[in-house]
Amino acid sequence: MSTKLFSEGDVQRRLDFDHALELAEQTYRELAQGRVVNPPKLGMHMGDDGEWPDLNAFAIDMPAYVDWLDVAGVKWAVANWDLETGTPISSLILLFDLEEGRFKSILEGMYITGVRTAIQSVVGLQHLRPSRPAEIGVLGAGYQARFQLQVIDELLDVDTFYLYDIDDTASRSLATSLDPRTDAEIVVCDTPAATAQSDAILTVTNSKTPVLSDDALDGSELIIALGTYQELSDRTILDADHVIVDHVEQCFQRGALSDLVDRNELTRSDVDATIGDVIDGGYDGRIQGDDRVVFTPIGLGSIDVAIAEHVYRNGTEDVIGEEFNFV
User: InterPro entries, per this entry (predicted)?
Assistant: First the structure.
């Protein structure tokens, strides 16, 4: 039996943002109800943690089974932060046909990852604020930030993005390239603190130290920390009125919460809910307008697999993608 292959272009042509949002919300809900198998990411450090080997790289394995779509799959991603050209991360998503016992498709994974990561933010912006965010601060102007601005602009009625990057050229270049394609205004900021004038703040960097001082915050904002490492200060997290995650175990292993967890300063009891609990109505905490909410969605393999299955089904109908016989 042949395996369907999808290039980045194939994926891009078949991936609809609105449908991806529906898939993500349903998968979050199903996970909260126990109908998705989504083990924590399996990570392999290759020097990005300061240990041997002498590389600034890591790899992650993200398997999942999504019952409501009857699909199992896995995403494998590898990153080398020392690369000076091109995108430092690449990934593939493999889908498995449970009835036939074979891999039915291999898809380029970076475009799906970019959209999925931005969709996570959209879900948080919709469910973790009492009202629509008119202004959003974005710290980071790399590969993922482009998706954040594009997807959020298309799916939400945002007035202004406040964009900052430690590399001013990168933030200005991103703003210039996206300006003709976004309805929202993109304002390039000179300091991280300037992004804090927003209703919500997204940190989408590979920084291993906090990118925004807690002193710049007023304590009544939604902060969505998307990076793999420590983007937020301890105080920003510990002073939050609500700490929401996508997956408790893996958010304790990577991302903004992990350092506090390693020092035993944050435990399971400090996490108020998963985003699936919130969507499913299982979180009783009422979010008020003056509350600080910290949301750390490290990314679920189940949503990658769900979106990939959507692309596969659409591609099969439209005869998009190539086929290859491994056996």
Answer: NAD(P)-bd_dom_sf, ODC_Mu_crystall, ODC_N
Q: Domain for residue 164, yes or no?
A: yes
For residue 61, what are its two tokens?
């394995």
Lowest mean pLDDT among 82-86, 116-120, 217-221, 248-252: 82-86
User: Can you tell me which residue has the tokens 């000179």?
Assistant: 190
pLDDT digit string, tens, across residues 173-204 = 999 999 999 999 999 999 999 999 999 999 99
275 and 232 in one domain?
yes
- If one counts the domains in the chain, the total is 2
- Element holding 94 (H helix, E strand): strand 89-97
Q: Which residues have a Cβ under 8 Å from the Cβ of 188 and sit 6 or more positions away?
A: 163, 164, 168, 171, 172, 175
pLDDT tens by residue, 152-162: 999 998 999 99
Per-residue confidence (pLDDT) for residue 321, from 0 to 100: 74
Position 50 in a domain: yes
In 3-state terms the chain splits into helix, strand, coil percentages (rounded to 5) of 40, 25, 35
What residue ranges in 159-303 does DSSP mark as E strands?
A: 160-164, 185-188, 200-203, 222-225, 242-245, 273-274, 293-296
Closest Cα partner for 108 from 85, 86, 76? 76
